[in-house]
């Protein structure tokens, strides 16, 4: 292990390390600024031919690309064409830079940074603004007042961007008696929610895109349920509805874990694929894994004479991601 | 040529500065090219991005899809998604431009990160370059943000999931979170305002900021000249290398052509972000195994391994969970990066003098050890962001992995620090200080 680390460190040191040359550098004839101290000119005719060939060759894929765009060719041909043309030109330029044009090494003095004399003058000049002014404090305060007021004036239009948070999130379209409909807008009956599956539902007639709208329906064996106190009649025949919007960061809780074999499997859970918060359906949406800080709000439902599912009230808590001051519930 | 030069010189006196510029000396080392690769990726991003803006409609208005992709025909989609599909299937060379733009963004951030790592471990951020280092770290932050805005614009399932998380993170800001999120989205998520707002940021505000900071970055380099490894006659007072003209200019143009060539080849041959497969976004939809672009992996990892803790006072949430991974973690990472030149000066080297020559990583074992631990820490969190893919690869259940990563979050940096310290003490049998 230690050896391995040594090898890695040595490798890093070699790659990034100080350039050490095999031979000491030849004494530069002159180190005058602007005059290269190493200069090599002249290109082998073969190299010049290679560069010319690369440039000419690049014309072929470039024209293939141009013709391809006009003829409606596929993305692969277009990308390969334009890419090849650029790569060939790049290769020609690299050959030109390293083998054809004069190869030079030159030296420059590093600039002097900082000039105390100029600094002093700047300070003096900046300080001059108050020279001969008798009511400096008054003018300064007046300027600050104007600046602060103008800042407020400039910032105020930002509020036009949107409403204050208010209660818009706590209000949902669900209320007692509202029918549950599927994505197609048709009312859902108890028979639509088979055990082991889950169904997405919306309040009839409401805006489906509102975060308070979508719920997910699951069907558990009623004897397995251990719902919190006060929710005894929220799950008729074991059918339960939960908000489909994760209380962590607002993604859709789009995964349902249903035990394949009860004695050895995890209990049923609704999971969000964004950060894998898992909510236990049998205990009314308690968080059993992942980062969510609040349970998944449950919606009480009832089954009508016609077997159609209806809301029996509002959610057990605020839906969606939390914010400052939201009820924990 | 001569006449043109005289014409310009007689009017704006250009010959003197140009003479100086043509003689400007660039030191040679392969690792100095990383920043240039980032620069040239940005050139490709602007070029392909301008093409994309001519077709893309950043609007949430809905319409019925009627394009070339049969599987979505007849579906109600937003104008944003519809026009991105149009770019992918109906505009000549549109998919090439879109995919090259996407690849260029990925390479842009890779090059910036590697450039940062090079700068960090060679001590290139020391006086007199602290300010330019700060500009560089800011560019990294802007690049990540710009990339996120870009893929969020398209309104496919992946971009919608990303925006939902961004909304959740914005909501989690203490005190102001709810109002900030509502201002940004023009009301409750998803709303209809966000796409056009992201668009002005993505195609104007952020590119303008990035271009300005790149210009500042380069200006500051010219001002101080480049650092370089000690290589006589290069020393603290002299910089040695290839003059700008003709050698370096040609070499750099070669790099531009090669970077662009590779990006267009990738854009043509290697599929990236196939938005037609993700489908349109709706708030009640999400998919398993969704992965954002690589440069957001560290954030999704942090959001995933955060313990399920909200700060609650009297039954009311005060700091919601996404704050830890989505705000605090990146703030700490960038805080350390920004402060490093001064932290090092104050606690490690106590060295406030000017440095023009670079360190080898072994020259400053404490910086190298702490830096290795720090980057390993971020990489650990990054890996946690891929835990669902790792489940498919190695079969370790997701919940087990989260606990492993929560441990690794603390253990890996310590381990790397200790190993690096011990290894650096004896690089070649010669004890090093520190």
Describe, in short, the structure shown.
The complex is a heterodimer of chains A (329) and B (434). With 329 residues, chain A is an alpha+beta fold. Chain A has helices spanning 2-16, 45-71, 75-100, 116-127, 136-155, and strands at 38-40, 103-109, 180-181, 198-203, 215-219, 239-243, 255-257, 269-271, 278-280, 286-289, 298-299, 301-303, 309-311.
Write a structural description.
- The complex is a heterodimer of chains A (329) and B (434).
- In chain A, the strands form 4 sheets. A 5-stranded antiparallel β-sheet of chain A has the order 3-4-5-6-11, with no helix packed on it.
- Chain A is extended and about 95 Å long.
- Among the domains of chain A are: 2-17 and 35-105, no CATH class; 180-311, Rieske [2Fe-2S] iron-sulphur domain (Rieske Iron-sulfur Protein).
- Chain A starts with a helix and ends in an 18-residue tail after the last strand.
- In chain A, helix 2 packs antiparallel against helix 3.
- Chain A has helices spanning 2-16, 45-71, 75-100, 116-127, 136-155; strands at 38-40, 103-109, 180-181, 198-203, 215-219, 239-243, 255-257, 269-271, 278-280, 286-289, 298-299, 301-303, 309-311.
- Chain A is an alpha+beta fold.
- The model of chain A has no long low-confidence stretch (mean pLDDT 90).
- Chain B has one domain (2-359): Cytochrome Bc1 Complex, Chain C.
- Residues 427-434 of chain B have low confidence and may be disordered.
- Chain B has helices at residues 2-12, 15-23, 33-53, 79-89, 94-121, 130-152, 157-171, 177-185, 194-224, 244-269, 275-278, 297-305, 322-349, 365-384, 387-394, 398-425, and strands at residues 25-26, 62-64, 76-78, 238-243, 311-313, 316-319.
- Chain B is mainly alpha-helical.
